[in-house]
Design a protein that fits this description.
Length: 335
């Protein structure tokens, strides 16, 4: 089997991003299947107008949509986002068949590509959530702490994010979970900086990590720090962006986490919302943050999107004739 090219999941952080989630309308499946191979060309068309702008597009496909769109095997770990209800905090599951994660150094590049994709979705899918994110000072989240510090890099990032040969049909693909969070900035800004630092588990100005003694059981980087049975740290790749509209009092973080196995991200979210099994603590970040969306998508390879399978129920293609055995003599001999 030829190796497949991943989508631009591992592209570096940029100054701007658009996150678009859409649901496929009844009967829109064929149009969406036809759109998928055109997405790379749409991205090239816009990106080549400003090559320094580093425009990339990652397309995700939700579990229910996958079964409506394609025949054949499906990614082994693809399932809908699981809603979580703890004693205090709630992580809702919200509709999402398609995710478009558009990144660039310039807002206009993201906007143009979002517009071209939306034109192609018309009549086939409905955009149910659209967030325009921006880079806030030195890579800070809306809460003004540096975000993305502990992201894996290099080989570790590839291992954390891309599906390996254990799911051979989907090697090189990934999974992504998105959650839109709104922050109570009045409550956050009323806290002393030292208290905010305990919430995140790092110093605000210097970005230094707090010592274990300084952290609380509910510090964000305690609750989301998880290991496998052998004690190895489990990593995801986060490409969060702040967003908001001050005039509407809206201040948010768009969480987006890529992983080779969405169960890793799922465990982090469960620790945050239901409680860390090591301490019972929920994430202190949730005292000032409310999740208002939650969806999970498979991120197939670019190779898959260029030539997707037919619709469900497509008759199996006749086997390719063996070029070395055009007369079928070998087969006859074997019979
Ligand atoms: C309200 C939304 C969120 C905000 C504002 C936020 C912000 C931050 C910040 C400022 C850090 C510290 C710097 C860094 O290592 O990146 C951090 C770390 C981290 N966050 Fe979040 N985050 C949010 C949601 C989430 C969610 C939903 C997850 C998991 C599903 C998550 C997973 C992590 C992980 C794994 C780390 C690194 C922990 C470590 O040090 O080992 N975050 N986040």
């Amino acid at each position: 089997m030829q190796p497949s090219d991943p989508q631009a999941v591992l592209a570096p952080m940029t100054a701007a991003a658009v996150f678009m989630v859409a649901t496929i309308d009844d009967g829109g499946e064929d149009a969406i299947r036809e759109l998928l191979p055109d997405l790379a060309a749409l991205c090239r068309t816009v990106g080549s107008r400003s090559p320094d702008g580093r425009l990339t597009l990652v397309t995700g496909i939700g579990a229910e949509a996958w079964d409506r769109l394609f025949d054949g095997p499906r990614p082994a770990h693809l399932h809908p986002f699981v809603e979580l209800r703890g004693d205090v905090h709630h992580a809702p599951a919200t509709p999402g068949d398609l995710l478009f994660h558009i990144r660039a150094e310039r807002v206009d590049l993201c906007f143009e590509l979002a517009m071209l994709i939306t034109e192609r979705l018309a009549g086939a899918a409905t955009v149910v959530d659209e967030v325009h994110g921006f880079r806030y000072f030195d890579d800070r989240a809306m809460l003004a702490f540096v975000d993305g510090v502990e992201n894996p890099t290099g080989r570790a990032a590839v291992d954390a994010v891309l599906v390996a040969d254990d799911d051979p049909d989907f090697a090189g693909s990934s999974y992504v979970i998105v959650q839109k969070y709104l922050h109570d900035m009045d409550a956050w800004n009323a806290m002393a900086v030292e208290a905010q630092e305990v919430v995140i588990g790092r110093r605000k100005a210097s970005n230094l990590e707090l010592s274990d003694e300084e952290k609380a059981p509910g510090s964000h980087n305690v609750v989301t720090n998880i290991t496998d049975d052998d004690g190895n740290e489990l990593k995801i790749l986060r490409e969060n962006m702040p967003f908001g509209a001050p005039g509407r009092g809206e201040f948010g973080t768009y969480f987006i986490g890529y992983a080779a196995d969405p169960a890793v991200t799922g465990r982090m979210i469960e620790n945050m919302f239901v409680g860390d099994p090591r301490s019972g603590a929920t994430d202190l970040i949730l005292d000032v943050s409310t999740a208002v969306t939650g969806s999970l998508f498979a991120v197939p390879t670019a190779t898959f999107l260029d030539d997707p399978p037919g619709p469900p129920g497509t008759p199996a293609a006749a086997p390719e004739p063996d070029p070395d055995d055009s007369l079928g003599i070998g087969k006859l001999a074997a019979d």
